[in-house]
Design brief:
The complex is a heterodimer of chains A (208) and B (585).
Chain A: H1 5-9, E1 17-18, H2 24-53, H3 63-92, H4 96-126, H5 140-171, H6 177-202
Chain B: E1 2-3, H1 18-23, H2 28-58, H3 74-93, H4 95-109, H5 118-137, H6 169-198, H7 211-242, E2 254-255, E3 258-259, H8 267-301, H9 308-321, H10 337-349, H11 351-365, H12 374-396, H13 399-405, H14 409-439, H15 445-471, H16 491-521, H17 578-584
Antiparallel strand pairs in B: 2-3
Classes of the chains: A mainly alpha (208), B mainly alpha (585).
The complex binds protoporphyrin IX containing FE and copper (II) ion.
Protoporphyrin IX containing FE (HEM) binds at residues 151, 282, 285-286, 328-329, 347, 350-351, 354, 390, 393-394, 396-397, 402, 405-406, 411, 414-415, 418-419 of chain B.
Amino acid sequence: MNETKTEALSSPWSGGVSPFAMGSKKLGMWLFIISDALTFTVLLVSYSYLRFANPDWPRPFPFFNAITFSTLMTVVLLASSLTMVMAVAAANRGLRDTAVKWILATMLGGALFVGLHLTERMHLIEEGVRPFSNPWGPPLFGAAFFGITGMHMTHVAIGVIYLGIVSLGFGRGKFSPEDVEVSGLYWHFVDLVWMFVFPLIYLMSVKH
Amino acid sequence: MVTHESGAVHAHAAPTGFIWKYIFSTDHKIIGIQYILLALVSAFVGMFLSVLMRIHLVWPNAKLPFIAGGVMTPEQYLALLTMHGSIMVFMVLTTAPQSGFGNYFLPIQIGAADMAFPVINMLSFWITFLSLLVMLAAFFVVGGAPISGWTAYPPLSALGEIAGPGQGAGQTLWVIGVAIFCGASLMGALNFITTTIDLRTKGMSLMRMPLTVWAWFLTAILGLLAFGVLLAACILLLLDRTAMTSFFIPGGLVITDQQVAHKGGSTLLWQHLFWFFGHPEVYIAILPGMGVTSHMLSTFARKPVFGYRAMVYAMCSIGFLGFCVWGHHMFVSGMSPYSALAFSLLTMSIGVPSAIKTFNWLGTLWGGQIRFTTAMLFALGFVSLFVSGGLSGLFLAQPAIDLYFHDTYFVVGHFHLIMGVAAIFGMFSALFFWFPKMFGRHLNEPLGKLHFWITFIGVYAIFMPMHYLGMAGHPRRYSDLSGANFLGPLMPVQRFISIAAFLTIAVQFIFLINFLWSLKFGKKAEKNPWEATTLEWTIPSPPPHDNFAGVEPVIYRAAYEYAQPGAVEDYVPQHLAPEQVARAR
Ligand code: HEM
Ligand SMILES: [Cu+2]
């Protein structure tokens, strides 16, 4: 129990330094991502559980247009992750203006995604899908669809605002490259969530 | 390796002006005190509700103040019960031990100038405050407070007005309040974890951290993993209530002759989600108390903690196992006997680390030169309550026995002893110990001891007989069973409990007076009145704005070096270098 002095002072865990060799903000973002990932996990597990419990769960999405459209959304979101990678790389190399441009491109991708998503929702609402009913049977279909994709879309929208703040701050020299990197973590996380939402909600609902 | 970018090294200027200094302060010490006051007020509100319930239970026809119509209806009783439980669990047991004392002392005990994210810290307090207001607002809307208990089981909690008074706007406010609380707790957890990992001062290795710091750190990890789950569950419940979805509502329900339109959902889903949060939550409430108890026992027995490493590993495994046992709350909800067996075995295995902690506490006391301060008495009380409450847990962990005990007073006795009162004893112990550091004055010891003894005997008098009621088959959450024949002979027991409760609650005003009086007139405290070893006792009482006045302390030894052979004093503080100890010799 009585650690000797020298032994304890030599490890990265012995105090005085950040053991993960990253700033506190980055660690904080990772922790946020863990808890938010759990929130999404619960939503997706609940959806799966209820889908199993309702044997007549509908599969209403035709390949043309629904699946192709949502694939387009996926591509847009993935592309925005790519531009975010470029933004972080530029920020780390000290290329302020380039980084800001890439962040703006990312925001554009995010905004486009939200726009496409809203268009899609309008379509479904026209077809009669509501949180509490739909033309194909189990009312939970609409609830799960709107609830889970809505939660994700909110995250994208918040991300766009967050990136806006970061681009302003970084452009004016108030934020560090690490701040850009931290916002990048958030952005990639939100994309990653979509990579679960897309197969579970869309691909598994293709019309036979 | 990156050195601290914020915090520990450079001193920052103290804010000026009342609002920034005391209201929207980002100083972890002020925020800690704010949390403690929030818990104190909530505790008195919660106690007041319980007095009304206890009166009604034994004098069902009594006219009561604050009750619309005078005599309490069964629904009003359930509303009081729901709010009592929710306020106590969320606003008292989750705030003071962790966010209150943890906020104040975690940074100091690891040698940091503040939390890693001071602004997030301030926000998490004010968001918690907002959630308290939202929850309390449920009392004042049409229909009043919700009636579905702190566990908010659907369909009762999901259906809205038709499910009863309080299930309209009141329940909606409750769900929103809890969701907001989840957000605040997540922010707090993230802050605590980052602070502990990144801001430990030089030499403060993990195995030199005081056990209080370990407890707050592990509690924060539990919070990070548990509140995200409850948040998702609350979102789904809110959708059921406001967007007419049916996540938690099965088909075919008929309520007051009306067929409910919802269908397809599952009530069990809520129970799984709620208890996946709920069981870790009970450890969120108790772990800080465990840390505090170890701290006191060592300090006042003048001995190092017996089996420090075992204590750390025991807390880690309790935290881990806490996520694997939620099903023990659902034995009677319709569960495969095989799952029940698994949950039962896992639950009982928590008894192992719990026993390790208990025996190590006894080992710490063994042969010590015990100083019976009030803080020490409350810590000893904690050990006693933890054992009494934990033993009944082992009964409840058997599916066959729980079939009978579930939803009886036996469970009420179990969780009040172990979760409610033990955690509160941890808080009292912490307050009597650290009050001198926080406010520069001691609490009054004779008054404190009087308060301790009456409270200690009182809580046993209240909660022990409840086990007996449960064995006799008395169900919980009923407002009035005076008409039930088989319970008639138990009325004297209920009356005894009520009277014990009134006395015990009355005695809490001794504490309140002690608290307020000592703030102004208490005996002045020096730097290290308890002759303790950890860092908070190396700085003035109360500490300056940035704790260490810009100097980063360096740590040379483990947290509990009492009665070290060769040292002149019977304690060696953590920051003393070997040369300094030698010089003292
Ligand atoms: C050896 C340790 C423990 C065991 C084996 C155990 C077991 C159980 C079981 C099986 C139940 C469910 C009873 C029922 O509803 O029928 C239960 C309920 C409960 N336990 Fe424990 N427990 C232990 C420790 C704790 C601790 C440390 C706390 C709090 C700090 C706690 C707080 C609660 C609460 C609050 C409930 C009731 C929840 C409700 O229905 O409202 N338990 N316990
Ligand atoms: Cu439990």
